[in-house]
Amino acid sequence: MPDSYSRAIVRYANGALDFTDSAGTLWTVSEIARLDYSERLMAMLPHPERRQGWLLFESDQGERRRLTPIPDEWRSLPVSELQHCLQNALPASSGEQRRRTDDPS
To answer: Helix, strand or coil for residue 31?
Structure first.
């Protein structure tokens, strides 16, 4: 594949974006905002690293990954940096995977 295939980033009005990694997988990236709960409730939640929000990477094949902390200006990063973020993102556990019921395949 030509090197330019992975250079295109599609940005959406809701702040999400799509990019294609070097393996040809399409990823949608969106920011999950900081949870706005009381400190007491926040202390009871699992995954303290997510309390300030995270980036959610979702592949066109159903894979989901999360990255914390959210990089500054992540929406303006080039594909190479988005791919680096993706490589550092942690896979969602199988219990957290959502099954798409609207997917006809």
So the answer is: strand
Q: What is the DSSP string of 44-94?
A: HSS-GGGTT-EEEEEETTS-EEEESSPPTTGGG--HHHHHHHHHHSEEPPT
Q: Which two tokens stand for residue 15?
A: 């702040």
Return the residue matching tokens 């409730």.
Answer: 41
DSSP summary character for residue 101: S
The string over 36-59, giving b where at least 16 C-beta atoms fall within 10 Å of a residue's C-beta and e elsewhere, is: eeeeeeeeeeeeeeeeeebbbbbe
**Residue pLDDT tens, the chain, 105 long:** 444 444 689 999 889 999 999 999 999 999 987 655 556 655 655 555 555 688 999 999 999 999 988 999 999 999 999 999 999 999 986 544 444 333 444
Q: Are 29 and 19 spatial neighbours (Cβ–Cβ below 8 Å)?
A: yes
